[in-house]
TrEMBL record:
Recorded GO MF terms: RNA binding
GO cellular component, one term: small-subunit processome
Origin species: Bos indicus x Bos taurus
Alphabetically ordered keywords of this record: Isopeptide bond, Nucleus, Phosphoprotein, Repeat, Ribosome biogenesis, rRNA processing, Transcription, Transcription regulation, Ubl conjugation, WD repeat
Recorded name of the encoding gene: WDR75
Quaternary state and interactors: Component of the proposed t-UTP subcomplex of the ribosomal small subunit (SSU) processome. SSU processome is composed of more than 70 proteins and the RNA chaperone small nucleolar RNA (snoRNA) U3.
Protein name: WD repeat-containing protein 75
Ranges of Acidic residues composition bias in the record: 768-788
Subcellular location: Nucleus, Nucleolus
Coiled coil: none
Lineage: Eukaryota, Metazoa, Chordata, Craniata, Vertebrata
InterPro entries membership: Beta-prop_WDR75_2nd (IPR057644), WD40/YVTN_repeat-like_dom_sf (IPR015943), WD40_repeat_dom_sf (IPR036322), WD40_rpt (IPR001680), WDR75 (IPR053826)
Pfam entry (one): Beta-prop_WDR75_2nd
Amino acid sequence: MVEEEGIRVVRCGGSELNFRRAVFSADSKYIFCVSGDFIKVYSTATEECVHILQGHRNLVTGIQLNPNNHLQLYSCSVDGTIKLWDYIDGILIKTFRVGCELHALFTLSHAEDSVFVTINKEKPDVFQLASVKLPKSSSQEIEAKELSFVLDYVNQSPKCIAFGNEGEYVAAVRDFYLSVYFFKKKTTTRFTLSSSRNKKHARNNFTCVTCHPKEDCIATGHKDGKIRLWRNFDDEKKYTYTCLHWHHDLVMDLAFSVTGSSLLSGGRESVLVEWREAAEKNKEFLPRLGATIEHISVSPAGDLFCTSHSDNKITIIHRNLEASAVIQGLVKDRSIFTGLMIDPRTKALVLNGKPGHLQFYSLQSDKQLYNLDIIQQEYINDSGLIQIELTKAAFGCYGNWLATVEQRQEKETELELQMKLWMYNKKTQGFVLNTKVNMPHEDHITALCFCNAEKSESSTLVTASKDGHFKVWILTDDSDIYKKAVGWTCDFVGSYHKYQATNCCFSEDGSLLAVSFEEIVTIWDSETWELKCTFCQRAGKIRHLCFGRLTCSKYLLGVTENGILCCWNLLSCALEWSTKLNVRVMEPDPNSENIAAIAQSSVGSDLFVFKPSEPRPLYIQKNICREEVLWGVFVPRDVPESFTSEAYQWLNRSQFYFLTKSQSLLTFSTQSPEEKLTPTSKQLLAEESLPTTPFYFLLGKHRKEQQNDKLNEALENELVQLPLTENIPAISELLRTPAHVLPSASFLCSMFVNSLLLSKETKSAEEHPDDVDMVEEKESDDSDEENNFTEKIQDTNNTDLEEDIIYQLSKSEEKELKKFRKVDYSWIAAL
């Protein structure tokens, strides 16, 4: 049973993993990234999330390793606190209350009791770099009010501030200015590039900065795609800089390697560039990373890099510029046109992803499963280009079919519309394009839905459009003489007084189809496509439409643009009840009669859960979030919950997810994000720290994982592949038997070593005739007896020779068999 006070709204995904630079652990086994008000700890080898550090009350804006303890992590937040974590155990160690909003965090190895933060002054766009002294105390919460200012008028982004030459100076860029502060001299030098008034230097703006770890060298990225390397910057008159230019657009981020021998850069080209020895001619590329590179990080050990991308993805890269792992979060598109859907097969959340793609997102592991390319065209990153948009999608027939709609409109009279129907292929475990319909309607498609009734004889799809029609598409034979191909064709076209069709949905049993034409709801018979009745509610156009489920299947609910929620009784063809409620999202639970409605209020969004048969809501929660909620969906549970309270029983069979305007995915749960991690993820921290000793290989605990892991293929080729010792009885008994009852080691040694020997393929008689002759001479008597035995077996089974083939041992195998017969295993039975 679950206590009702444990229910709360939790963020379950959708937070930006690319908001700040990711940070590697000292041994490169883990990578830390900011995710909303959490810090997520991922394994670089398995891509699994092993911990979620939860404690900040607002957006986390910076993370850094503790330079004095590589097993600890600092974090800062807009809530005005700096927290120290033990990331191995996921424990909060200390909290330092600074008292003002913190926007970036930096640490230095020689500054043991202080960190550097970016704070906001009185004006909203003016920021300062300050040093915060962290007092030493045994208490968990400490006041840290002692601040000393270092640089003024800096950029809010941490990409625009960098410390160089082991902390001797700090460089900051903003607009056309580069400022360098020297800690020993306590002086500041400032350099200015040509302003935008000159057309030749119109894009000289600084975008990022990084410093050489061991030399006096500063690298800056610019809006025009150039990289400038600054030297002799301790003198405002004698400074010099050289230019590196490959990027055609602005440089998003820069990073030096640990030794400073190479410089990494990235931008909108989705290509990681490595400038070796900071030379124009000596550069290497890692192309086709999928999206704009926003951040670049280097591990302290220098063996790994990572890039954060605009599609909410982190790519882990080896030193030789080979991508080794990808941590993919929920892709944030410009707008979610398709809404939230659930794949009936994988129970994955499906919505708009990369341009022209549908993303399948695992709600359990909080990561993307795969992308389905719908538009199947190369995406051109140009702000002035009108792209093809994926606007509608729907699953049907228990996940066997997927319908999508894509459109592009450059002018009002130039509409490009295409509908595609995809069939699930069991062999490839993916969707394959089956039917493509060009211009299925003359205007924008407003809704589409499948008939998912269990007793439905044929597959049916309905589309509604602004052209005033709704069309019924059925699956028919579109085959040759072999009758093996199927396709979709239009079976019926309906309209109502030339009104625009805005919504459509089927009843639970599939017998009725409801189509809304602006302010009027029409009910159609799905067998004859005859108009049965109409409902008219002069309160604005119908925004949402859905039938009741199970015992409430006789009710139809509709929401108007003027904020009226209506419920009609299909048996009496009359309005059952209505209420004034500004509903933005209305979703029926497929496993119960409950319906969730989210209404927009002046202070936020409110949730109402009700049954159509009862106008009194079962559950009301005000202000579930401050933002506007755009979409919602019920996800059936694999294991039902057992809430005892009547107010929370609507969560027993299904879990409700909703997406906000900032594309944060929220849900109602009794578990925190850390508690929702799978047991295997929690064990990774302990298992990865185990030493790979010979006894570790002997037990063979992770042998299956090593065989399936592509990352360890090179390592397995170099190591000697040990035999499978788990299934050998002698080895099992040797390991399980107490030491005080075992025979002497000299007695067991030969048997134990022989069991570990690798099996060797027998060589042909043609290659080694001498060896064969020797064996025949020494073992002639024994072999003759065994040959006679095998001949008897062949004679008795001669009639069934085609069905049963008796395996005949070679002479070398017979020799090995005799050796095993001579070994005495009787001591095992006596144990």
